[in-house]
Fold this sequence. Notes:
It comes from Luteibacter jiangsuensis. The protein has 169 residues and is mainly α. 61% of the residues lie in helices and 2% in strands. Strand 1 and strand 2 (163-164) form a beta hairpin.
Amino acid sequence: MPGNGPELRDIHVPQVSMWWPLAPGWWVLLASLVAFVAVLVVFLRRRAAWRRHVDASLSDLREAVARYVTDGDKPAFAAAASDLVRRVARSRDASSVTKSGQPWHDALAAMAPKHDVGTLVALDTAKYRRDVDLDVAATAHDVEAWVRAAMRRRTAVHGRRGRRDHVAA
């Protein structure tokens, strides 16, 4: 009679690396991490490009301040600052190009609601006067703050593709 049952051999576990092949959950986690890093890189590059765009827009203002320091021409500074405000306003709202007076004030206030735009509206008339009573440093600060706020503020999104309601300058 045979022994007490079939003869069994010891179980041998195959040699499998601890790191390879990965379980499906780890592959999903790794793919999610790669996708997150890619989205983060795209976001940071777009943000840096936008900041360069805003700084390039403000370079005209810095040049106007530097010119004022050398020649003291307030109407020329007012004209350069007014042109910058008009260009930024046009990029945010194409219909603002033709406005003046109270509609212009309202348009500027709508683009940057938390900023006082009285000085910016006064630039339109100051650039045509010879004797302008204008604090250049304060006006430059106001223009820069408004430009940064107006360019930061997002306008209404239209349509399914998310087009913004602005015109490229």
